[in-house]
Structures are given as structure tokens and as C-alpha cells.
Design brief:
Helix content is 50%, strand content 22%. The protein is of the alpha+beta class. Strand 4 and strand 5 form a beta hairpin. Helix 4 packs across helix 5 and helix 6 crosses helix 9. The chain is globular and about 55 Å long. The termini are far apart. InterPro entries: cNMP-bd_dom, cNMP-bd_dom_sf, RmlC-like_jellyroll.
Amino acid sequence: MNKPFSNFLANIKRYTVLTPMEEEELCGLLLLKTVKRKQLLLREGEVCSYEYYVHTGCLRTYYTDGKGTEHNLYFAVEDWWISDLYSRTTGKPAHCTIAALEDSEVIGIRQDDLEAFMIRVPAMERFFRKAYQQALIANHLRSLRMLSVNGQERYKLFREQFPELAGRVPQKHIATFLGLTPEFFNTIHARVLRQDQ
């Protein structure tokens, strides 16, 4: 089995176990896709029909408001998952866009194929239940931090929690993810770097 699918299967094994036959069947449903830097994986208004696993690279999910301002909601690097859950689940147009911040490779599985596979293989449903629980916890904690700590503390927590993102994601994208203006973010970024020395 090739390397991208080996990493994909290792990710699944964090929460569940598939038989060799189930692994083979699952790999037959997967699509390996290359996404160049700045290329869109999903555009707002399109229907998202895939769940994606990031094999290599870095991507972001963002929402564009009525004034044209982008608000970053999620980042994904190697061994993380990315999709528009709302669109993929409801079949309605996506509210968000997914774009590559680096040349990336993702492994996709169509929603219909995933649903059918989870019915046949309940262990796969367990994997996604556990993965979604972790994602909901992370989103819950992020929401609480947005309400309860100042910008500098949010940035320090971001650097502690996601050290792999701090050096790879442009600062302007980190700023909007943390709910900060780029100008204010530059000030606190410099302050945090001074404190780290």
C-alpha cells in the first residue's frame, strides 16, 4: 500500500481498528488530490461532497463577510482533516472557502461512499464520532477563549496549542483566526516574541 494511504490508515487507528479487508475496501474509495498554493479546494457557494485528510501541506477554511473581509475559522496541516461539515452533511451550498496555504496533497472520500462504508463498518462510524467530539471540544474551547482572554493571551495559547501552525500560517491569517486586526496582532506578536527571549 502506498505511503499516503498508510498515514491515512494510521490516523484512523487512533480511535478504531479495521480489518485488513476493511482497510483495503476503504482505500478503494479514496482519491489522492494535489492542491497548489492559493488554489481552492472548495469555494463558497459550492456543495462540499468530500471529507479530506491532509497528507502534506497546509490549508485554511475561511468565511468572507459582506464587506469582503476574510475570517479564518480553521487550519489543517499533515494528519488533520478538513471539510465543510455543514455543506457536506446537508447537501446545501458551503458558506466557507477552503484554500491551500502551501502546495498540498489531500486524500478525499466522497460523502456518499463514506456513509455507505460506515453503515457496513460501524468501526468507521466510531472513528468519526470520536474525531468530531475532539473537534467540537477544540471549537468550544476556542469560543470560550475568544470571550474570556485578551488578544495577547489568545495568541500565546495558539502558539502553545498549535506550534506547527505558528511558523507556517501567515500572520494576517492567524490574526483573523484569533479575532484580531492585523495591526493589533503585529503589536502583540512583537511583544510575545520579546517575552520568549
